[in-house]
Amino acid sequence: xxxxxxxxxxxxxxxxxxxxxxxxxxxxxxxxxxxxxxxxxxxxxxxxxxxxxxxxxxxxxxxxxxxxxxxxxxxxxxxxxxxxxxxxxxxxxxxxxxxxxxxxxxxxxxxxxxxxxxxxxxxxxxxxxxxxxxxxxxxxxxxxxxxxxxxxxxxxxxxxxxxxxxxxxxxxxxxxxxxxxxxxxxxxxxxxxxxxxxxxxxxxxxxxxxxxxxxxxxxxxxxxxxxx
Length: 228
Ligand code: CA
Fold this sequence. Notes:
Arc Repressor Mutant, subunit A; five-stranded antiparallel beta sheet; globular; Rossmann fold; alpha/beta; 228 residues; binds calcium ion
């Protein structure tokens, strides 16, 4: 297994030093940037596996950088953990809305952060050698084939893309507009209820194999793929 690259974007030297020490003993390779400009260059050149992003940065804020990264195809799949001094619910929601996968409130222990990194990486990348295996569904992304408990099944192209997105972003709620953005692409104009239509089709197929519970409706929020 190759070493995962974690990019820390943080202007406080004390935190960078602390992390350097913590990462020295870990399986990860730590990359550092002290502001958003440096971070953007690093992201382009290094394609990190995960970004630890400080909310309060000089110049472009962490929140703004997260929004920018999620707009670009080359960076939108990189998971982000926001490091925030703010503990308020509103800010957490803003961070998650901006595309962050998780957040850690300062002050945090390196151990806590390591656990979060591990959890996020596991959640976003259940894919090994082109095979996604989650909740009893197996997706061969190279051959474009699908199986439930060994039985092959087929999906329409949109349902396939939707399921792929869910399987690579499980345990998180996505609103209809977020799903449109991430699965259909941000440039097309499609009504939000289109999402419901395709979710229904996907569920119908999954029902034949008794795994429709994996796609959960979260009232007033959207949908979630969950194996719990
Ligand atoms: Ca800061």
